[in-house]
Amino acid sequence: MEIHIRNATPKDARAMARIIIRAGRQGEESFPYKFPHYEEYPEDNMECTVNMLQTYMLGKDPVWDFKAMVAEVKLDDQSMLTISVAVWEVSAFAENIAEQRDQVVDSYEEVTNNGCENRRDADPARLEEWTKALDNARRQFLGPNGPVNGPLSYLHLQHIFTEPSYQKNGAATKLLFWGMRKADEHKLAIGAFASPMGQQFLCGLDFKIIAPVKVQVEGQEEFVVVTCMSRQAKS
């Protein structure tokens, strides 16, 4: 199967969102944790995921700069089908930074709502705790957690997902290789937070486990654990 990769555009957001949702529901423990009401409100999850991706690709995030990419295969009718997606936080070397990048963000709400503060599929407290826990882990284990806190020394793998029926065909690996080449070119490490399935995938590509990160809202019994991982640049 010949796989092509290319830069994503805002027009790809809906196809990318479908992959993120389907793959997330199948293999990510964090999905039901963050979105316990998905079954009742799947449309909210879709629209907010599309909104998030468009925010990435249009450079509207007030803190980070992102690079979104897709992997495609050609169907029998010669049309192209998107089968895998990756989103990289590239603030460490981005040339076209967001206009508001130097703006100090006073609250997590400013960077997490993306116009979806009233979404019905999610648990708001868990979303907030997820953002705080991962942000703290980035600061503790990977380095500065934003351009306003000093120069970044790593790329961050924000998302990487493959359509379940096309998994284990090398699409995600090909997307990951793009970031690995960029990181080596700029002498940067790569950071990521991985599910158990993602941890196995990344360990096979020279990533090392740094620490588990537990996400739990005070007063709730439910929690989820992701693994902070890193890959060092190759000379």
The computed structural class is alpha+beta
Q: What is the CATH H-level superfamily?
A: Gcn5-related N-acetyltransferase (GNAT)
Architecture in CATH?
Answer: 3-Layer(aba) Sandwich
Q: Report the major sheet.
A: 7 strands, mixed
What number of domains?
1
Low-confidence stretches: 96-113
> Strands across the major sheet, in which order?
1-2-3-4-5-7-6
Order of helices and strands: EHHHEEHHEHEHEE
* Tally of strands: 7
Shape annotation: globular
Tell me the Rg in angstroms: 17 Å
Question: CATH topology, which one?
Answer: Aminopeptidase
Total helical elements:
7
Question: What secondary-structure arrangement, pairings included, does this model have?
Answer:
Layout (H helix, E strand, L loop, with lengths): L3 E4 L5 H15 L2 H5 L7 H16 L8 E9 L5 E10 L19 H4 L11 H19 L11 E9 L8 H15 L3 E6 L1 H8 L4 E8 L8 E8 L4
Parallel strand pairs: 4-5
Antiparallel strand pairs: 1-2, 2-3, 3-4, 5-7, 6-7
Helix pairs in contact: 1-3
Notes on the structure:
- There is one protein chain.
- The protein has about 240 residues and is of the alpha+beta class.
- About 35% of the residues lie in helices and about 25% in strands.
- The chain is built from seven helices and seven strands, in the order E-H-H-H-E-E-H-H-E-H-E-H-E-E.
- It has helices spanning about 15-25, 30-35, 40-55, 110, 125-140, 170-185, 195-205, and strands at about 5, 65-75, 80-90, 155-160, 190-195, 210-215, 225-230.
- Strands 1-2-3-4-5-7-6 form a seven-stranded mixed β-sheet, sandwiched between helices.
- Strand 2 (about 65-75) and strand 3 form a beta hairpin.
- Residues about 95-115 have low confidence and may be disordered.
